[in-house]
Amino acid sequence: MAAIAILLIAVFMISSCGQGLLESEEVKGDGPWTVGFSCQFKDTIRNVTPPSFTSKIVNNGEALGALPTDPAMVGYKFGGWYTYQNGYGSRVTENTKIYRNTIVYAYWYNYKVSFMNDGVLYASRGITSPDQTVRSLPASPTKSGYNFAGWWDAENCGGNEFLAGTAVAADKTVYACWKSENVYWVTYDSEGGSSVGVQYVVPPATTVGSLPPDPTRLFYRFDGWYTGKNGTGTRFTESTPVTSNMTVYAKWTATPGYTVVYNSYGGTQVDPQYVIPPATTVGALPDPPQKSCYTFDGWYTQPNGGGVPFTETSTVDDTTTVEGVLTVYAKWTWDPLPAPATYEIGDRGPSCVGKIFYIEQAADGTYGWEMAPPDWYLAPERPDQSADPSFVWIKGTPEPGSENEVDPTQKTLNGQTSTAFGTGMQNSEAIISQEGHTDSAAKMCRDYRGGGFDDWFLPSQEELALMFANKDVKRSGGFYDEGDAGYWSSSEYDAWDGWSQYFITGRKTGSNKAQGRFVRPVRRFKIS
User: What's the pLDDT score for residue 17?
Assistant: First the structure.
C-alpha cells in the first residue's frame, strides 16, 4: 500500500485535472504558492484530454513559467488559461507573476473571430454556444497619419462592417479599415441589452447608411435608438446626419414573459426558453439532452414521467407557471450499452453508468474499479436536486436536550475503519453498523443501485485518491472543480473527523464528521 500512496502523489502531478488552492482560502506568509489549472470540461459525454499537469509550485513574485500542454475537448477549441471562468479576466501566460495561491481556468469556444491589422493578427475573440456574437470588440488600433474606420469582413475596407452584434456561425477573419480622411464614430449604448459596438462614418458620407442589427434584452422590446437615454432626445436612424462623434441609446419597452426551465435530470444541460406574450407556447423544443445508458423519452411537468407531457404546443402562461417559471423534467428509459470486450481506465464499467478509475492486479485475478456517475443521487424521492448533494460522514441519535442531530455519534471513535486500498466496503459496513447510526454518506452509497448492482460503497482514503488521480482520463468524471469541492472517504481520521479529499488540489485532510461533503460511490468487479 505504501507503493500505491507514492504512486498517487506522482499521478496527481501529471494526469489529474483539478485546480490550485481556492482563491478565497486564507493564506499567510510569502509563498511558495500553488497554481492550479481548472479544465472546466463541459460534461461527461464528450471525450477529453487532460493537460500534462494541473498544479505547480511558484515562489512568491516569480513568473509562472512553463504552462501545461493544452487540454482538449471534443466539440470545442481551447482558448488558453484565464483568471476567471469563460475567458473573463486576464490571460495567464508563462510570464504571469504569482503572489498568492491561485486558480486559473481553461477557456473553451466554438468559433473564433481573428482581427487583422495590416497583415498582422491584432486580437481574437472566441464565441461559445449558445452565444452568436462576440462579447466586445478589441480596443481600436492606431496608425500614424490615418484614422481607424472599423473592422470589415474584406481587406481594404471591403465587404460589410463587423460590429459587436454581427452574428458569427463559423471561424471568421475581419480587417482593420484605415482612412486618411476624418472619421466620425457612432457608439451604440444598448442600455442593458446585447452589445452592438461602434459604427464609423467617413466623409463625404454624412450618415451611417444602415443601422446595425437590433440588440436584444430578455423580456423587453427594442424601440429604436435615441440621442438621449430612455427615449429622450431625437430618434437616430440610418439617415440622421453624423458630423461629429456621438453616442445613441437604446429605448426599451418592458414585455413581461415566462421562462421554461429544462431539468435534464442528470443529462446534458439544456438552456432555458422564453415565452413572451402574445405567444403562449415555446414554438419549438430545444435539442434533446443526452445521458449515457439511457434513451430520452420526452419532457414532463413532474419528475420521472409524472404530470403531463410538455411539447412545443403546451401552454405557458399564468395558469402553468409559478412566478413566471415553468420547470419541466426529462424522462429517461434505461438502455444500456453493450459491455466492452476489455476494460481500460476511462471506459464504462459493467454498470454502464459507471466509469473505470483503476485496474487492480490481484493474486486471484484482475479487478476493475468503477465510480458512479455525477448524477448517481437522482431518484424519485429527490426530484428537485440539481447539484451534487453533500452528506455528513455519519448521523446518530441526539443526546437528550441536544440541538445537534449528529451528537453523540460524531464524537464516538469507530475504530474499525482503515485508510488502506481495498477496505472501502468493510469501512462502509462498519460505519452503518455503528451504535446509534441513523444515516451516513456510507449508507447513501450502499443504498445506490446503479446498473442494477447492490455492491456500491464509499471508498477508503486510498481508493478515493486513485479516483482523483484518474478522474478525467478519456472523459470528464464530472467532479466539482470550483468552490469547496471536498469528497468523503469511508476512512475515519479520529473521533471527531473523517478523511476527505479536495478534488481541486488533491489535498487530503481530516474533516469534522458533521460537515457536508460530496460523495461518489464505487464498486469493485472481477475482469479475469
Answer: 47
The Cα–Cα gap between 167 and 221 comes to: 19
Q: Which residue has the cell 470588440?
A: 137
Long-range contacts of 349-352 (CB under 8 A, 24+ apart): 349/451, 349/523, 349/525, 350/451, 350/453, 350/525, 351/450, 351/451, 351/452, 351/453, 351/523, 352/292, 352/293, 352/451
* Cell, residue 255: 414585455
Q: Which three cell numbers stand for residue 236?
A: 437616430
Expressed in angstroms, the distance from the first to the final Cα of the chain is 22
Instruction: Count the domains in the chain.
Output: 4
Instruction: Give the contacts of 402 (CB within 8 A, at least 6 positions apart).
Output: 408
Packed helices 461-469 and 2-15: angle between N→C axes, nearest 10 degrees: 30
Residues 36 and 87 in one domain: yes
- Looking at residue 27, its pLDDT comes to 46
Separation between Cα atoms, residue 474 and residue 368, nearest integer Å: 16
Contact 491, 427 (CB under 8 A): yes
pLDDT in tens, 162-176: 999 899 999 999 999
pTM: 0.79
As a whole number of angstroms, the distance between CA 251 and CA 262 comes to 31
Contact between residue 150 and residue 200 where contact means Cβ atoms under 8 Å apart? yes
Over residues 108-156, the pLDDT tens digits come to 999 999 999 999 999 999 999 888 899 889 999 999 999 999 999 999 9
Q: Is 346 a domain residue?
A: no
CB 350 within 8 A of CB 370: yes
Q: Give a yes or no: residue 181 inside a domain.
A: yes
Q: What residue has cell string 509563498?
A: 31
Residue 64 in any domain: the answer is yes
Q: Are residues 116 and 245 both part of a single domain?
A: yes
